Structure formats: structure tokens, C-alpha cells
Amino acid sequence: MKKLLIAVTAVATLGAVTLPAVASTPQSDLKEFRNYFFKKFPGVKLQDYGNGIYAIDAARRFEWEAMEEFPPYEDGVEKGKQLFEKYKLASCFQNGGIGIKQNYPYFDKKSGKVRTLELDIMTCLKKKGVDVKKEKIKYKKGKLAAMAAYMAYTSRGKKQNVVVPNDAKALAIYDRGKHTFYAKRGQLNFACADCHMYSAGLMARGNLLSPALGQTSHFPVWRRKWAKKTAAKKGKSGPFDGFGTIQRRYGGCNKQVRAKPLKAQGDEYTALEYFHTYMSNGIKLNGPAVRQ
Ligand code: HEC
User: Fold this and answer.
1) pLDDT tens digits, one per residue of 101-124
2) CA-to-CA distance for 23 and 214, rounded, in angstroms?
3) What is the distance in A from the centroid of ligand 1 to the CA of 186?
4) Quick one: which atom of ligand 1 is closest to the CA of 246?
5) What whole-number distance in Å separates Cα of residue 244 and Cα of residue 215?
6) Structure-derived torsion over alpha carbons of residues 229, 235, 241, 245, reported in degrees to the nearest 10
7) pLDDT tens-digit profile of 175-211?
8) Which of 31, 55, 105, 237 is the most core-located residue (most Cβ within 10 A)?
């Protein structure tokens, strides 16, 4: 435990506590955010950021490319497709739900709220009369993540295109997400920005920290860690055990700094996802991707 703390504190002291300028717009934030990374990692191109740590570490990239040759998520994506068809989700979405993930999350003017793909899938299931409790469909993993992974898969190659309209409610949600990203949290007092901006490219407890830019392009991800955990719990492994949504990941990162994870698909994580994804606009989707 002591060792862990030392390692993490070392990262903390490296992190500057600069908050972005106050008078800003989403457009100016995006520019500033990107320029920060472009300066930090000269030579890494915008599209490369979609590959997380593998964009900045050649040795790890080599291992990862080998994993992607026989993608462990293939059966899970197939299963997600079957579920998508079984529950007849196509009719709830534009273009039958195919190739649309890049537009998520979006601001829904009617409700004044931001909608993630997972929220729209859940609403659709309920509309179709699916008993989500009985079918054990939850937000962060399992069947819902598998359906989201299938939908992400059909959107590969499309550029993230999150819109923050000039609407007071939309801007307020965006600002809330931005605040969450830069706010210190947990007993260790770390912000997302401390690890994934100021310390990106450095090590924290044996993990290389990925740049926040591009992090949203490949979700849901298929993680070895999650696959093992679920298989151990159930006593057998299933095709989509490894999947988790981005908000599942947020919860894991909050836990790392000993903060209580917030509710998946609650207002705060959804605002964070809105801001976080907007920052990666223009980067091509490449999910689901394999992670450790
Ligand atoms: C103590 C450092 C730390 C903090 C604080 C932290 N993370 Fe992480 N995060 C990690 C580590 C370590 C990983 C795994 C390696 C990697 O991909 O960066 C990770 C991974 C991720 C990933 C997956 C990246 C990928 O390519 O799959 C996302 C997304 C993410 N973090 C978002 C966040 C957000 C948003 C916050 C704030 C709520 C946050 N993290 C706070 C350490 C941190």
C-alpha cells in the first residue's frame, strides 16, 4: 500500500494544477486541449490518439497489434448483433442503428438532456416491453455493452462528431462535464486531467497513462481484466464478459484514487462523457478495442 501511494503521489506532484482559462467556448477548449497534447507528443498524429497508450509506446503497441490479429471480442460483437436483432432495436434509431455511434452523446432539445448510446438502447428496450430486470440488462456491461459494442463496430472509421449547440442547457451540461474532468477527487485528490493530461505518457503503478485525447473512440472496450473477473464470478466464461462501457471505466478510474464511483448513466458521468467525447471530435471510431 505504501509503495502504491508513493508511486501515485510521484505522479501527482508532476501534475500542474492549471485550470483552463475561464472565458472559453467548446471550440476554444477543443483547440487548447489538442494543442496541449500536440506539444507534449510531437509526431503523434490526431488519428493515432484513438489507440490510447499504443499511440505513444512502440513496445506495447507491438503486443497489442498481435492481440488484435485474433480479436477476443469477435464472438461478443456477434452476440451483440444477435441481441440487437432479437430485441428489434433497429426501429428506435436513425439508419436502423447502423453507423451512428459517432454522433453520441448528443443533446436532446426536447428533454434538455444529453443522451448516450447506452441510454438510448435502454429506453428502446423498455419501449419494446423488454423486462430489463428479469433479463438482467444493466448499463455498464453484459448484454447492453455487447449491443453497444456491435453498434460501435458498425461505426468504425466514422469520425466522432459530437455537437454542443448554442443552447444554455447544452452548454451547462458541457461545462459540468468539463468541471468533472478537471476537478480533484478521492482520498488521493486526483483529477482525470492529472493522470490523463499532465501525466500522460508517465507511469502510475506500472501502468502507462494514456492521453485523454482519443480515449472515447474505442468504447465499449474488451478488457482482459474484466473478462477474467466476470468469468471467475460466474464460474464459466461467456463471449461478452470482457465488455465494458466508458462509464464503467470512469468508475474504475474513480476507484483508483479512492473516490466512490458515481452512478453509471447518471447526470455527472453523462456530462463528463459529453465533454470528453467532444474533445475527441474528428478522431475515427475504432471500437471495440482490446485493453489489458
Ligand atoms: C491515478 C491516475 C488516474 C486518474 C485520476 C484517472 N485515471 Fe483513467 N486510467 C488510469 C490508468 C492507469 C488507466 C489504464 C492505462 C491507460 O489506458 O491510461 C486508465 C484508463 C482510462 C481509460 C481507458 C483508456 C483506453 O484507451 O481504454 C479512460 C477512458 C479513462 N482512464 C478515463 C478517465 C477519466 C475520465 C478520469 C476522471 C474521472 C480518469 N480516467 C481518472 C489512471 C487514472
Assistant:
1) 999 999 999 999 999 999 999 999
2) 24
3) 14
4) 29
5) 14
6) -50
7) 999 999 999 999 999 999 999 999 999 999 889 999 9
8) 105
